[in-house]
Amino acid sequence: AVVSTQSTGEYVGCTNFLTAVGGFLQSLIHGYLGVRVEESVMYLSPHLLPGCTSTGYTGVMYHGERYNVTVTQGSFTITRTTGNGFEVWSIVDCAEGGKSYPLITGKEVELSSGRYKICQGEERWEMVEASPSLVPVQCLDCRC
């Protein structure tokens, strides 16, 4: 948060009310982005603010990994922007029988709106189906 004061001539304004800034950020992250955090999993259920066509969240951090999320009407994209290339992370669709998608650093994943979870799995993967742009996989240790 940026702490500043406003002043015009001889009148000095007040500093930012940091707890209000924190409350505003929490309403966006935990409300509209739908983040719920547990020890080994982060749930996402993103949706738009009323009257918006899209919104973006940059640098959402979980267990040392950073993610960018862009929410549009009926879908969202998520991109893992940092991280250890040797760690296996996936995003799991909680409504589609646990179908998961690998979160590879720098690769955007587009998903329909719904409830998902981000989790770290072991390097045991079972192929479900392949497509030219993304390979959906089932992470055996990461279920909803």
Short description:
The chain is mainly beta and 144 residues long.
Structure description:
With 144 residues, the chain is mainly β. The protein has one helix spanning 18-32, and strands at 7-8, 11-12, 36-37, 41-44, 54-62, 65-72, 75-80, 88-93, 100-102, 108-112, 116-121, 125-127, 137-139. Strands 3-4-11-8-9 form a 5-stranded antiparallel β-sheet, with no helix packed on it. The protein is elongated. The model is unreliable at 123-141 (pLDDT under 50).
Radius of gyration from the alpha-carbon trace, in angstroms: 18 Å
What structural category do the secondary elements indicate?
mainly beta
In round numbers, the mean pLDDT is 77
Tell me the span between the first and last alpha carbons. Answer: 34 Å
Q: Which stretches are low in confidence, meaning pLDDT under 50 for 5 or more residues running? A: 123-141
- Topology pattern, helix = H, strand = E: EEHEEEEEEEEEEE
Features:
single chain; 144 residues; mainly beta; 4-stranded antiparallel sheet; elongated
